[in-house]
Amino acid sequence: LTYTIQSTTGAQQYFTVTPSGAIVAIRSLTEDGANTNPYLMTITLRDQGNPVLTAITQATVRINVNRNINCPVFNTNSPSTYTITQSQTTLVFATVSATDADAINTPFSSITYSIIGDDGATSMFTLNTNTGGISNLPALYSDNGRTYQLRIQATDGGTPACSTTRVILVTVERNLNAPQWSGTNTPNNYVVEILETHDVTIPVKVLAATDADDRSPNRDIIYEFDPNSQHQDLFTVDQNGPVYLRGSMIGKTPIQYVLTLFARDKGTSQKSSPVGTLTVNVVRNQNAPIINNLPREVNISAGQGTNLEIFRVTATDADTRSPYNTLTFDRTGEGSATTYFNVNPSNGAVFLTASVSGVPDERFYLRVRAQDGGDPKKFDSKVLTIIVNRNLQKPVMSAGQYNKRILETQAVSVELVKVLATDGDNFVTSFKNSVDNIKAPNNQLEYFISSNNAEVNKFVQVDADTGSVSLKQSIKNFTNAATVFTVSFQVSARDKAASPQTADNPQIVQLTVVRNTRPMFTNPAAYSNAIPETTPGGQIVYATTVSNTDTDAPFNQLDYSLYPDSTNLARLFFEIDSSGVVRVRTGVNLNQTAQTQFDVRVVVADR
What we know:
The protein folds into six domains: 2-63, no CATH class; 73-173, Cadherins (Immunoglobulin-like); 180-283, Immunoglobulin-like; 290-389, Immunoglobulin-like; 396-514, Immunoglobulin-like (Sandwich), CATH 2.60.40; 520-606, Sandwich (Immunoglobulin-like), CATH 2.60.40. It is rod-shaped and about 260 Å long. The chain is mostly beta strands.
């Protein structure tokens, strides 16, 4: 039998029938540019007899061809760009999908996916060939690239296969962390204190921030002002963190400045810290020192040793911070004081630098200054008066018996006793090539009553220059009423030096005061007498007797007189002598009067 193909679709170009009746392809159907489908053919059958006989009926064959006509098509509803964060873990971050219009359940509609480029994408990413899931490879974490172009191919199962490509851009976010402020006093806030004299070359504060990213430039930080920050005219910030003054703070009044700043990393997608503040508190020199213990006078000996403290100046400053409350001392000098005196700068101790034993000056005026550590410095200055004591010897009272017996009628301001003293000062100086003996006033004496008895001081005085002791007022009024009493007191002397010295041996002065006692008649029972009228003149009529305890003249000196009576006749006929004897007046005749009785009044008085 012989089989023959007859076709109107050109099937005979691609198929043949074997002697056994099998229809086989004789060439690839893919060569059919017309993509014929189906192929229709008629098979005739004849024998090889003679005549050849042909089968009455023909066999009609229809060959349906599953052709790979369509290429895969990517779905357009999936993104073409992706942003991922770097990770050491392999994660599916995107899935691509495609469809193929060829017959289902055939290789031509079965799609596989692959990454075919670009650059090094194939080593950084992997693609699930069946699902289209795109994952990062570990190599991506180590790489520093940021944008990757992935060329993805969808291929069907045809032979030859048909494929379609799609480009996906993947951005890897490697800058994962924003800088965070560190070393702050409170969250996101630095507080710093500076002096108003702060050096513009020294940072006010060095800012610090950290970034948790693991590599440059994402972890590299720069610092800058918030564009809206105040005081950018006074401060500047270096991108590495130091904050500096633009100029001196001296002369400005605010004590606090608040700056706002950012820390930013250098990543391609730059991240910024939270806004940070830098509070700058400026310590200003607001108070000048005050010297507490000047002006004052201080005494030193002419033999004062050098480099020994003679006085310590103290001062205070109301400022609370160094160096504004750190004080130093120096001398600014008046006259010759700076030649001989100096001041310890740290503690204010004043000391002698050169001997003053041969200098005639007795007073030096040293102006001492206390100044703080500000710039400019504030200060106070006051004068210390230094008195050189050349009065080396004390007066010595001359020992003696300074006793005097006086009457209560003693006149005032009349010398009673004179107290004496000496002073051995005789200071020799050598100055300007001449030698002078300087005594006064160191050996000039002043006498005074050293006893602390108000009544004595009321009645007695001593001449300050001569030592002469006299009464200040009548001693009669002294409260002691004894007939004889003693007023005892001490007299001392001091010299007239600027720093006077007083004698150590005051002398006792004793004034024995004698009061005047009244004379008394001692024979009152015999105060009458009878005489004849013929008694001659000069005849004793009566002899008085008087008692007087006074022993001091004139209190013990008595005077007698007749006191007039009512008629005054007694004084005409009688008289009394200095011893108290009453006589008939010489030359008088008692017969010349008819008076028979005379009242002769005798008066006795001391002087």
